[in-house]
C-alpha cells in the first residue's frame, strides 16, 4: 500500500536540508559581521566562509555556488538584488548604509535569485519510464483532446494539445503518467509565480502577498526574502531603546530547553529593553472582533433565531435582552462600514487580508475586521509607554515585513525579524539561551490571545469571547481555513453564497496549520503545535476581557 | 541489555543547524525509542566558534559532529545490531 501523498507544504517539512543549512549560515555570518563591526569589504569574504571547499557540493561549480550565496548576502543585508547578467560589485557605501541603525527595507520582500533558479518546467503531465506501451493503452482512449498517442511503443503526450485534465494519469494501470509540479508555483496560493522569457521563475508582484511559502518550498533555494537583521543589530549596538514583541508561536522554537523566560532573558542580554507578548495585542483584536461580531449578530438577530429554531436548538431565554446590551464600548467601536457587513473577517494574517483585498475587493472591504493585526496592537502598547521605543516584531512571518509598508503600521512597528533570523542573531552575539539564567515569566496575555498561533485559534477565541460577552451559549456559524489556496476557494464560495449556514465569522490563515507553520519558524510542526497549546493553557487569564475586569477589581 | 545513550546538543548553534530535526527523528520512531536513551543537552562546546561543526551528538560517550539524519540512522542501526547479537 503506498503511503498517502503529501501536499507541497508537508513534503520537506521537519527536514533539515542543505538549502536551509546555507540560508542559516548566511544569516549568522551577516549577523556576526555587524556584531563584530567588520569593515564593509568583509562582505566579499562571506561567500567563501559559507562555501569553503574548492570542489562543488551542490551545483556544477563553486563559482556559481558562491555567486548565489553572494546574492543571499545582499538580501540578508536588506539590499535589492542585482539584475542577472548585470555587472555588480557591492559598493562599500552600500554596505555602510546597511550597517546603520536606520530602516532601509524596500519592496519587493520576496525575490527570485535568478542564477539559483533551475527553471523547473511549469505544471504538466508527463509519461514516465514506467510506461509499457500496453495494448489496451487507456490513456489514448480517454484523452478528450486526442493529445495522447503511442509512438515507438510508448505513450506520448502532445503538450500543445494537453489541457491538463489528468484523465490519462488516472486510468494508467502502471501509474506511468505523472503530474509534474513546479514547487514554487504549487506553493503559491494566489498564482503569482510564472516564468520569464527564459523560463526562470518570475513573481508577479501585483498578485504576490509576500507570504513567503515559495521560499521554503523551492528545493533549490532560489527564492529568498530580505532581512533586517543588520539594521536591528546596529540599533541594539547604537544603544537605542529597542523593544521586542514576540509572536505566540515562539514557544519551543529554540528547542525544548529554552523556556519562554530564557528567551526573554537572552533578548535582554542582547540589549533589548523589554519583551512584550504579541498575544497581548491579539487580546485587543479578540475584543474588537467580538464587538463587531455582536453588532452583526444584533442586526441579524431574526435570522439567527430562525435558523437555530430550524435546528431545534434551545435558545436561552435571555438571548434577546443580552443581544440588546447597550454597552457604550460596543457603540464606540461600531464603524459605519457595518452597513454592508455580512461577516466578520479576521485581520491578523497579513497575507490573508492582502490576498482577500486583491482578489475579492467587493466582499472584503466591508467585512474584514477594522482591527489591526496583533503585531500593531502590541506595538501600540509599547509605544504608549515609551515614545522613543524602537519596536522589533519577532515572529514566524515574512508577510509582516510587507505589512510595515502600510503607513499606519510603520508608525508603530520599526523592524520585523523571523525566529530563524533571531537564531542567527543569537549566534552572532554568542548568546546561547540554554545557558542564560531565566528572566520573569511572560504574563501579558490571555489563553485565547495565545491561541492565535494555531489555525482555528483566532475564530475559536473570538467566538468564546463573544459568547462570554453575550452570556449566552448560541451557535455562531463560522469557518476557519489555512493556506491561501483554501482561503481563496472559501471567499469564492462566500461571494456566491454557497455556504449554508452563511458564516458570520471567517478566519483565514495563509500558512499551513497557522503561524506555527510559517516560513520563518525553526521548530518542526508537531512540536510547535504541542508547545503552543500547552503555553496557551498556562496563561493566568483565560479571556482577554478578564484583564480589564482584573484591573478594575484592584 | 543497556540502552544506547544518545545526547543531542540543543545549544543555539546545533539547534539552528538541524539538532531539533534529529530529536524528532529518534523520538518519532518506535524502533529507536525502544533502544535509545535520548537526552537533549546544553551546548557540548564542540560545534566550533561559528557553528560549522553543528549539529553535534554524543553517542555512547563518543562525540560526532556535523551530524545528519542519514548518518545518525546508520550509526544507531549499527549499534542496535551489535547489541542484538
Ligand atoms: S522551484 Fe525553485 S528552481 Fe524550480 S522554478 Fe521555482 S524557483 Fe526555480
Ligand atoms: S504570494 Fe507567497 S508564494 Fe506567492 S510569490 Fe508571493 S511570497 Fe511567493
Topology at a glance:
The complex is a heterodimer of chains A (554) and B (85).
Chain A: H1 8-11, H2 18-35, H3 46-50, H4 62-77, H5 92-98, E1 110-112, E2 124-127, H6 138-142, E3 148-151, E4 154-157, H7 167-171, E5 177-180, H8 183-187, E6 193-195, E7 201-203, H9 213-217, E8 223-225, H10 229-237, E9 242-246, H11 260-270, E10 274-277, H12 278-299, H13 301-310, H14 319-323, H15 328-333, E11 344-345, H16 350-359, H17 361-367, H18 374-385, E12 390-395, H19 399-403, H20 407-410, E13 415-418, H21 419-428, H22 447-450, H23 457-470, E14 478-482, H24 484-495, E15 505-509, H25 525-537, H26 544-553
Parallel strand pairs in A: 9-10, 9-12, 11-15, 12-13, 14-15
Antiparallel strand pairs in A: 1-8, 2-5, 3-4, 6-7
Chain B: E1 4-9, H1 12-27, H2 30-35, E2 36-41, E3 57-59, E4 62-64, H3 69-84
Parallel strand pairs in B: 1-2
Antiparallel strand pairs in B: 1-3, 3-4
One iron/sulfur cluster is lined by residues 112, 117-120, 182-184, 201, 218, 220, 222-223 of chain A.
Q: What would CATH call the class of chain B?
A: Alpha Beta
Structural class of chain B: alpha+beta
The coarse overall form of chain A would be globular
Distinct small-molecule ligands in the complex:
iron/sulfur cluster
Overall SS class of chain A = alpha/beta
Total domain count of chain B:
1
Radius of gyration of chain A equals 26 Å
Per DSSP, the total helix count of chain B is 3
Q: Mean pLDDT of chain A, as a whole number? A: 88
Identify the CATH class of the largest domain in chain A: Alpha Beta
**Cα end-to-end separation of chain A:** 63 Å
Total helical elements of chain A: 26
Task: Describe the fold and architecture.
The complex is a heterodimer of chains A (554) and B (85). Chain A has three domains: 8-98 and 106-119 and 192-225, no CATH class; 124-180, 2-Layer Sandwich (Alpha-Beta Plaits); 228-340 and 370-472 and 523-549, 3-Layer(aba) Sandwich (Rossmann fold). Chain A has a four-stranded parallel β-sheet, sandwiched between helices. Chain A has a three-stranded parallel β-sheet with strand order 11-15-14, sandwiched between helices. Mean pLDDT of chain A is 88; it is low at 324-338. Chain A is an alpha/beta fold and 554 residues long. In chain B, a hairpin with a 2-residue loop joins β3 and β4 (62-64). The termini of chain B are close together. A four-stranded mixed β-sheet of chain B has the order 2-1-3-4. Helices cover 45% and strands 21% of the residues of chain B. Chain B is α+β, with helices and mostly antiparallel strands. Classes of the chains: A alpha/beta (554), B alpha+beta (85). The A-B interface holds A 14-16, 20-21, 24-25, 28-29, 32, 49, 254-258, 420, 423-424, 426-427, 431-435, 522-524, 526-527 and B 10-13, 15-24, 40, 42-43, 50-52, 68-69. The site of one iron/sulfur cluster has 14 residues of chain A, from α9.
Amino acid at each position: 500500500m503506498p503511503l498517502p501523498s503529501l501536499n507541497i507544504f508537508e513534503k520537506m517539512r521537519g527536514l533539515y536540508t542543505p538549502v536551509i543549512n546555507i540560508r542559516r549560515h548566511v544569516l549568522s555570518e551577516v549577523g556576526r559581521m555587524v556584531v563584530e563591526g567588520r569593515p564593509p569589504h568583509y562582505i566579499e569574504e562571506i561567500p567563501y566562509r559559507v562555501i569553503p571547499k574548492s570542489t562543488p557540493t551542490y551545483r556544477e561549480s563553486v563559482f556559481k555556488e558562491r555567486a548565489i550565496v553572494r546574492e543571499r548576502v545582499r538580501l540578508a543585508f536588506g539590499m535589492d538584488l542585482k539584475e542577472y547578467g548585470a555587472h555588480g560589485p557591492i559598493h562599500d557605501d552600500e554596505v555602510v548604509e546597511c550597517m546603520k541603525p536606520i530602516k532601509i527595507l524596500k519592496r519587493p520582500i520576496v525575490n527570485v535569485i535568478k542564477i539559483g533558479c533551475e527553471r523547473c518546467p511549469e505544471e504538466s503531465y508527463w509519461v514516465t519510464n514506467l510506461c509499457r506501451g500496453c495494448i489496451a493503452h487507456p490513456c489514448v482512449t480517454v484523452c478528450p483532446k486526442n493529445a495522447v498517442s503511442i509512438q515507438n511503443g510508448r505513450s506520448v503526450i502532445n503538450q500543445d494539445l494537453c489541457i491538463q485534465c489528468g484523465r490519462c494519469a488516472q486510468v494508467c494501470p502502471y501509474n506511468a503518467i505523472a503530474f509534474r509540479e513546479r514547487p514554487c508555483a504549487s506553493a503559491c496560493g494566489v498564482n503569482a509565480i510564472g516564468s520569464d522569457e527564459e523560463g526562470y521563475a518570475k513573481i508577479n508582484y501585483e498578485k504576490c502577498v509576500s507570504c513567503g511559502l515559495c521560499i521554503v518550498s523551492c528545493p533549490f533555494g532560489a527564492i529568498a526574502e530580505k532581512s533586517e537583521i543588520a539594521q536591528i543589530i546596529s540599533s541594539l549596538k547604537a544603544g537605542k531603546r529597542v523593544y521586542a514583541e514576540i509572536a505566540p508561536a515562539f514557544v519551543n522554537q529554540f528547542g525544548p530547553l529554552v523556556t519562554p523566560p530564557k528567551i526573554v532573558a537572552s533578548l535582554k542580554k542582547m540589549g533589548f529593553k523589554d519583551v512584550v507578548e504579541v498575544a497581548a495585542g491579539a487580546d485587543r483584536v479578540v475584543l474588537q472582533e467580538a464587538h463587531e461580531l455582536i453588532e452583526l449578530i444584533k442586526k441579524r438577530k431574526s435570522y439567527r433565531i430562525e435558523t437555530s429554531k430550524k435546528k431545534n436548538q434551545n435558545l436561552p431565554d435571555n438571548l434577546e435582552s443580552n443581544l440588546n446590551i447597550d454597552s457604550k464600548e460596543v457603540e464606540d467601536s461600531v464603524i459605519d462600514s457595518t452597513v454592508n457587513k455580512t461577516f466578520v473577517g479576521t485581520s491578523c494574517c497579513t497575507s490573508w487580508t492582502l490576498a482577500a483585498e486583491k482578489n475579492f475587493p467587493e466582499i472584503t472591504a466591508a467585512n474584514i475586521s477594522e482591527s489591526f493585526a496583533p503585531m500593531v496592537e502590541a506595538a501600540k502598547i509599547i509605544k504608549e509607554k515609551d515614545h522613543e521605543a524602537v519596536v522589533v516584531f519577532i515572529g514566524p512571518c515574512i508577510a509582516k515585513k510587507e505589512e510595515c509598508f502600510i503607513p499606519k503600521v510603520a508608525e508603530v512597528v520599526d523592524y520585523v525579524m523571523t525566529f530563524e533570523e533571531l537564531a542567527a542573531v543569537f549566534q552572532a552575539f554568542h548568546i546561547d539561551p540554554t545557558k542564560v539564567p531565566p528572566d520573569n515569566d511572560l504574563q501579558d496575555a490571555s489563553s485565547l490571545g495565545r491561541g492565535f498561533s494555531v489555525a482555528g485559534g483566532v475564530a475559536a477565541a473570538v467566538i468564546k469571547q463573544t459568547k462570554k460577552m453575550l452570556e449566552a451559549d448560541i451557535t455562531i456559524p463560522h469557518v476557519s481555513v489555512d493556506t491561501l489556496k483554501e482561503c481563496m476557494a472559501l471567499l469564492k464560495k462566500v461571494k456566491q453564497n454557497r455556504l449554508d449556514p452563511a458564516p458570520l465569522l471567517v478566519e483565514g490563515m495563509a500558512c499551513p496549520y497557522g503561524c506555527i507553520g510559517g516560513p520563518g519558524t525553526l521548530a518542526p510542526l508537531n512540536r510547535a503545535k504541542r508547545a503552543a497549546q500547552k503555553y496557551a493553557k498556562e496563561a493566568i487569564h483565560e479571556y482577554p476581557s478578564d484583564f480589564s475586569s482584573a484591573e478594575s477589581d484592584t | 541489555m543497556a540502552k544506547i545513550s544518545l545526547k543531542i546538543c540543543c545549544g543555539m548553534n546545533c539547534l539552528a543547524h538541524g539538532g531539533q530535526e534529529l530529536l524528532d527523528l529518534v523520538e518519532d520512531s518506535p524502533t529507536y525509542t525502544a533502544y535509545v536513551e535520548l537526552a537533549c543537552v546544553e551546548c557540548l562546546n564542540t560545534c566550533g566558534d561559528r557553528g560549522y561543526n553543528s549539529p553535534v551528538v554524543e553517542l555512547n560517550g563518543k562525540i560526532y559532529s556535523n551530524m545528519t539524519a542519514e548518518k545518525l540512522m546508520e550509526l544507531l542501526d549499527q549499534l542496535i545490531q551489535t547489541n542484538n547479537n
